[in-house]
Write a structure and sequence with these properties.
It is a single chain. With 217 residues, the chain is mostly helical. The protein has nine helices and no strands. It has helices at residues 2-34, 40-80, 83-98, 105-131, 133-140, 146-150, 152-167, 169-185, 193-213. The longest helix has 41 residues, at 40-80.
Amino acid sequence: MRNYNDSVHFYGRIWVALGIFLMLMVPVSVCVYYNAWPEFQHVFKGLLGVAPIFWTVGIIEVFTYAPMLGTGGTYLGFITGNLTSLKVPAALNAMQAAGVEASSEEGEVISTIAIASSAIVTTLVIALGVLMLGYLQPILESPVLTPAFDNILPALFGGLGVVYISKNWKVAIAPLVFMIVLFLLVPSLASSVGVLVPVGALVAIGAARVMYKRNMI
């Protein structure tokens, strides 16, 4: 298993570096092609409002999702993206169906296969959707389907939540109460899933540690 992890870390770092390079080359290529370079102060002003939040969430997500996804799943998930709504639910559901733990060797393999399958299926669905967009647009924009699309993410995590909350419902109380109170006080935060999922995980970890020290779990 150690040789496998070493190999995954080696190639994972290469692919992450290539992914960052390709993302940066998109704006650079546009600037080169049109010979239009933004001034530094405007770039800095734009980064000032976005970068601190993005970097904070990115760091929190690594510590939150890495134990769930394993070595291979973490690299593959962060490279392909869309962890919260696709990769993490796919990996957790696959490990639950296979009856393996996230920290085990079996869980490592299942998680990596699930995330890879999710990435392939997502790419195929997007490609099919682009080809058939003209035919599907009236259906997708139908008022009848609007409520369904607005609740895709809650449905995904709701289905997974029933399984994991039932394993230890005491740990789930603190993040559940915290999120309910937070959304009641600040309803506009309902769209900030990328920030609140890791925050909820940290609240659950802190509550679990307190209850463990008091022999409540």
